[in-house]
Amino acid sequence: MTQDMATSPEPEPQATELISGGHLVAKALKAEGVDVIYTLCGGHIIDIYDGCVDEGIKVIDVRHEQVAAHAADGHARITGTTGCAVVTAGPGTTDAVTGVANALRAESPMLLIGGQGALSQHKMGSLQDLPHVDMMAPITKFAATVPHTERVADLVSMAFRECYNGAPGPSFLEIPRDVLDAKVPRDRARVPRPGGYRASTRRQGDPAAIERLADLLVNAEKPCILLGNQIWTTRATDAATELVRTLNVPAYMNGAGRGTLPPGDPHHYQLSRRYAFNNADVIVIVGTPFDFRMGYGRRLSPEATVVQIDLDYRTVGKNRDVDLGIVGDPGLILSAVTQAASGRSDNGASGRKAWLEELRAEETKAYEKRLPLQHSGASPIHPYRLVHEINEFLTEDSIYIGDGGDIVTFSGQVVQPKSPGHWMDPGPLGTLGVGIPFVMAAKQARPDKEVVALFGDGAFSLTGWDFETLVRFDLPFVGIVGNNSSMNQIRYGQGAKYGKDRERVGNTLGDVPYSEFARMLGGHGEEVREPGQIRPALERARESGKPSLINVWIDTDVYAPGTMNQTMYK
């Protein structure tokens, strides 16, 4: 050995790349295709922000965690991809509970990430420490704690995967502060490969059941179909349209299924649903549970053959027996049924002309009965006039959002989105306050679309301060407040149950000029008291290019038929 060889220094070991928990979160979000998170800051979660900056994920910070959760829900509905909200521990997470619960009932895939005190301080009473997982488990499809930094991205991907187990829904993940802030060798942390950790959940259903449904529809004299939320969830618009046109079946739409067929389509029906359900011989319910909206199934004729199609086995036949249940992807199922029926020498389409004409006559009768109210020149403004003007204002590119009680019940009878996926409402949880966060998500995800939102004055008040967030992030929309200074849906029920002298206990609001609120926060605002002022004000809001509120003073003593028919008041 030479002297030089003996004294040569040993080669220095290569430094191991380290990565923090927050950066692993961001990488897992990127792998899922998440391009924006909705959040309210807190010391437990800021390393996630740092990771998002590096991964090019937009951070939209709001003023209340409920808004963040609703926005993540709204993002999922608009895009068909998973939404994500990030909140801090304790009250940050509990503030988001309502948004997560709403997503559960609406079958909306979103991930809520919550902070937590350090594992090293477990059960010691650390700041904002609460049993988040225990609280979230009943209202999510998956809820867990990340026990080690190496598992962060792995568990994020696991939470995303569970969002799509059966019908979609929310997941929750809490990450303790020391787990999130710690750094581990990059090669010891599993970071899921995009597209490598989730399989397709699309199922076509039992082939024998497909054939049976094709037989039922081909041989039906008076069939009808209800297209619910899952038509949009599974992007089954084309499949549904092809079935109803090929087999000449009248279609009704609810929830996010609205807009599957455009207004004016010969198979689009809206006002004759009760008549159809009472007189049809075959009723197909797609992607809608037999919950309160369906009278728990009792609104369907007992003589009809009832078929239910749903992503979730637990929904089919719940609350009401069905003659045929098919579990699977509605789009695949409807396409298969159309194909199965297409090979028949006679698919029955021509024989149903009289049935469609019978229903159209019922539609026309209901429409003409209501038309004078939609054109009412009364002041204070009749709610039907307001929602009529909104419907006339919408274009094919207008996403319509309803957030309220009585006023949105009016709009459900009149407002018709012109395109699929252009209707948003809270869903079956009936959560007020979704409007502003849904606007935020819709405009952020689809800046090419116009967003039009109708609020009750009570509903707007719940999350209205995030109007400022819309201004801050330059997310313009046309907002309308149907202002009757009341929680009128509740007021009606109290009056009906306890008498007029007690109808205003706990439900009367102040006369708030919301246009001034909008202007104060940097938006566009106008007051409207006469019906002829509605359309010009809407046009000016559209042209302003700003977040806007048109405060429309409506008649306080007029109630929607749906409000007066609510069974909880009887």
TrEMBL record:
Any Pfam family hit: TPP_enzyme_C
Keyword Cytoplasm applies: no
Spans through the membrane: none
Domain Thiamine pyrophosphate enzyme central positions: 210-336
Residue stretches making up the Thiamine pyrophosphate enzyme N-terminal TPP-binding domain: 20-129
Domain annotation Thiamine pyrophosphate enzyme TPP-binding: ranges: 403-552
Keywords, in A-Z order: Metal-binding, Thiamine pyrophosphate
The protein's required cofactors: thiamine diphosphate; Mg(2+)
Keyword Zinc: no
Family membership noted in the UniProt record: Belongs to the TPP enzyme family.
UniProt name for this protein: Thiamine pyrophosphate-binding protein
